[in-house]
């Protein structure tokens, strides 16, 4: 038998929970106001509490904090309605173990949650979240913020709410969106990802909502849009901050009405997909700057999850290296000084840059060594390190010095000289090596030209892509910003 506290001003609900929990053999104390609550926690120690977030005489979050301070071992489940779902996020951040939505539609869920919290000491969601992440090859590590983030995401995945994911480029927003999809009841339905910045304005409406046959010149047959393709699954709107204002209006309309019409069509279709939006720019700032609609932000920011950048979780880097090497069966081992270089670097491209770095290192070391020393790292990772000056650099590393670190013209000169040396060498030429040089020159040249364009446009990727006559997606691809 455990002592359970119920705090809610809805008498009917209190009666119902009281009956249910007493029936399970527990001793229940019911409080219908903040005042009752103050008295109850002075008189008794509780193992579990069900708290309503909205009480007439007291803020539910204050009650939660007060309870956690006085009785830190007491597990807490907050009870929310749709209008208070944002408060549920704060409640979990303030230490609530889980939340349930009112009205309750599954009594068994409450019984199960009660048992899990009282017997096992943690909400079922917590260990299930970590298990699912591991099944999906999604690295979380030991960082507390990342752990909380994934546990929180798991708890909200099952609810039918829109999620907004923020985080710097490459932090893993799409990876997290996949995780939410798999943790949700929609896992058996499609997951459709759309890069909002990459949709061409004139194709926008038909891309999103589809079109009927003959709706416009070139519409030879009927086509499903992203909303319809997602069906009862998840529609992931990546880089929503880059959507044009016209796109934003169209998205807002679907979110407000839950309906859309195909271009050229007449039938109103219901949107059944769950929306997850992601942005690498802070959307509140974008609203202030006038580039993002406030009403759209209000609609998508029901549950906001912010992924910390890799530089804020360097304690996880050694484990991340091991994880990645094992996962890809690379059979390499990084020396402690190499790991030190990785921990000192600030990783502006976050997880994506990290993965690319390991792939590059593995390619360089192939056939040469299984022990990775700092010399195998890109020079930018060693810029503050004693290793850069060392003369004892393996051949493969020398030949791949990236252009970013030097003037591009110097890079070209060095590349030509190396190619001439190879040509004039009397030995048999290693053709594989020559091909590698050509490929690396192609990549470095494309990146150098794009970076020059980005300088001209002061970092505006869309404008740079237009100037270069390529799509934004292609530009990002060349910059290694997308898989
Ligand atoms: N938690 C993770 N576990 C394992 N790999 C990850 C994780 N997060 C990110 N990655 C790696 O980083 C790459 C980039 O991740 P993702 O595309 O999700 O980033 P993003 O934040 O959506 O990027 P962008 O801002 O450019 O849209 C992935 O392809 C994957 O290789």
From TrEMBL:
| All copies of domain Sigma-54 factor interaction, residue ranges | 139-363
Q: Which UniProt keywords apply?
A: ATP-binding, Nucleotide-binding, Phosphoprotein, Transcription, Transcription regulation
Record-level Gene Ontology MF annotations: ATP binding; sequence-specific DNA binding
Q: Does the keyword DNA-binding apply?
A: no
What Pfam families does this protein map onto?
Answer: AAA_lid_14 (PF25601), HTH_8 (PF02954), Response_reg (PF00072), Sigma54_activat (PF00158)
Keyword hit for Nucleotide-binding:
yes
Which InterPro entries does the entry link to?
AAA+_ATPase, AAA_lid_NorR, CheY-like_superfamily, Homeodomain-like_sf, HTH_Fis, P-loop_NTPase, Sig_transdc_resp-reg_receiver, Sigma_54_int
Single GO biological process annotation from the record: phosphorelay signal transduction system
> Which part of the chain is the Response regulatory domain?
3-117
Give the protein name, as stated in the record: Fis family transcriptional regulator
**Species the sequence originates in:** Heyndrickxia ginsengihumi
At the highest ranks, the source species' classification is: Bacteria, Bacillati, Bacillota, Bacilli, Bacillales
């Amino acid at each position: 038998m455990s002592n359970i506290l119920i705090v809610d001003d809805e008498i009917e609900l209190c009666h119902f929970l009281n009956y249910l929990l007493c029936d399970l053999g527990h001793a229940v104390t019911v409080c219908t106001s903040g005042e009752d609550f103050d008295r109850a926690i002075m008189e008794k120690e509780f193992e579990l509490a069900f708290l309503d977030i909205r009480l007439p005489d007291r803020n539910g979050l204050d009650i939660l904090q007060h309870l956690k301070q006085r009785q830190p071992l007491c597990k807490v489940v907050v009870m929310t309605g749709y209008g208070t779902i944002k408060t549920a996020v704060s409640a979990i951040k303030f230490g609530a173990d889980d939340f349930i939505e009112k009205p309750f539609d599954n009594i068994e869920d409450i019984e199960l949650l009660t048992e899990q919290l009282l017997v096992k000491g943690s909400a079922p969601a917590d260990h299930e979240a970590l298990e699912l992440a591991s099944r999906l090859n999604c690295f979380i590590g030991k960082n507390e913020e990342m752990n909380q983030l994934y546990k929180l995401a798991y708890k909200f995945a099952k609810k039918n709410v829109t999620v907004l994911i923020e985080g710097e480029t490459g932090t893993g927003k799409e990876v997290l969106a996949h995780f939410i999809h798999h943790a949700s009841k929609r896992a058996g339905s499609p997951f459709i990802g759309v890069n909002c910045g990459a949709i061409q304005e004139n194709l926008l409406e038909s891309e999103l909502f589809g079109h009927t046959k003959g709706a416009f010149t070139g519409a030879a047959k009927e086509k499903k849009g992203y909303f319809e393709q997602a069906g009862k699954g998840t529609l992931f709107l990546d880089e929503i901050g880059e959507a044009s204002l016209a796109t934003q209006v169209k998205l807002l309309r679907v979110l407000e009405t839950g309906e859309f019409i195909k271009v050229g069509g007449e039938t109103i279709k219901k949107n059944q997909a769950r929306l997850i939006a992601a942005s690498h720019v802070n959307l509140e700032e974008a609203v202030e700057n006038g580039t993002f609609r406030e009403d759209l932000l209000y609609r998508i920011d029901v549950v906001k999850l912010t992924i910390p950048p890799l530089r804020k979780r360097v304690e996880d880097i050694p484990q991340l290296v091991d994880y990645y090497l094992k996962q890809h069966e690379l059979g390499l081992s990084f020396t402690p000084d190499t790991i030190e270089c990785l921990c000192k670097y600030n990783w502006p491209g976050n997880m994506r840059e990290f993965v690319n770095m390991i792939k590059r290192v593995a390619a360089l070391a192939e056939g040469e060594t299984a022990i990775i020393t700092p010399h195998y790292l890109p020079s930018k990772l060693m810029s503050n390190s004693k290793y850069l000056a060392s003369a004892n650099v393996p051949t493969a590393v020398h030949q791949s010095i990236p252009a970013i670190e030097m003037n591009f013209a110097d890079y070209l000169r060095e590349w030509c000289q190396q190619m001439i040396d190879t040509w004039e060498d009397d030995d048999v030429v290693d053709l594989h090596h020559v091909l590698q040089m050509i490929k690396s020159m192609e990549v470095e040249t494309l990146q150098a030209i794009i970076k020059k364009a980005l300088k001209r446009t002061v970092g505006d990727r869309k404008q740079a892509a237009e100037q270069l006559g390529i799509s934004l997606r292609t530009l990002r691809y060349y910059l290694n910003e997308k898989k």
